[in-house]
Design a protein that fits this description.
mainly alpha
Length: 240
């Protein structure tokens, strides 16, 4: 039963991380900066992978803190812990459903770039939005070095951890360090795979692939996943 539950948690984590990586904020800036600076496809993918590793590292570090505290609470509460964890996940699911109902899409902005009003962002395509964001940014200025552009992209993504994956870490507490390691590997695999796939598609001219739905309905998807996962933890999570 625990093996089946861990598999379910891992599958949920992969879905969360991959869909999050499909959001244009995780690949389109790399493509636009690459075109502005004349980078090769290989270099662009390498920079994307480097930034993705930073993104994964910070998320895993926060997950480590969640796991460490969770292990101690689990040791104190025993069989009650799955009820608490499941309840928290149900509450998080409700929050994401509420955020989806509100209909807002959060736009991340490039560090050092001029800010554009949110209402303008809502009227633009992904490519147009990021073209505006990058105008005047040090990431695309010819007089700056590639190192400046690479470090800027790295910091931009690293300092924006995958918040949607943190509840997955919480759901894996009952599996101990084995669960933490499995989920961290899942996070890295799904994030890097998503970033590499969509960056490559854009580099070969397929950036018009319809991925905005990932961003538009991300909150609803997370709400559904965490609601289902919370229910499963309550029903099946007492055998650990």
């Amino acid at each position: 039963m625990n093996a089946a539950l861990l598999t379910t948690v891992a599958a949920t984590g992969f879905t969360v991380a991959f869909s999050h990586a499909a959001i244009p904020t995780h690949w389109l800036p790399f493509v636009l900066v690459s075109r502005a600076r004349g980078w090769s496809r290989g270099k662009t993918l390498a920079v994307s992978a480097l930034a993705g590793l930073g993104h994964v590292a910070l998320t895993s570090l926060i997950g480590l803190a969640i796991a460490w505290f969770g292990f101690r609470i689990d040791a104190e509460l025993g069989e009650v812990f799955p009820w608490i964890t499941g309840g928290i996940l149900l509450a998080i699911g409700a929050y994401y459903f509420w955020r989806q109902w509100r209909g807002g899409i959060v736009h991340h902005h490039v560090l050092g770039a001029p800010h554009h009003p949110s209402e303008q962002c809502g009227q633009e395509t992904d490519s147009t939005h990021w073209d505006h964001e990058l105008k005047g940014s040090k990431l695309v200025e010819d007089r700056t070095t590639d190192w400046t552009a690479v470090s800027g992209l790295f910091v931009m993504l690293t300092l924006s951890p995958c918040e949607g994956f943190l509840p997955v870490y919480l759901s894996g507490v009952q599996f101990g360090w084995r669960g933490f390691i499995v989920l961290s590997l899942i996070l890295a695999l799904a994030t890097l795979a998503g970033m590499m796939i969509f960056t490559w598609l854009a580099l070969v001219g397929l950036e018009r692939v319809q991925v905005k739905s990932f961003e538009r309905f991300e909150s609803g998807l997370l709400g559904l996943l965490f609601t289902l996962l919370g229910g499963l933890l309550i029903v099946l999570g007492h055998g650990h």
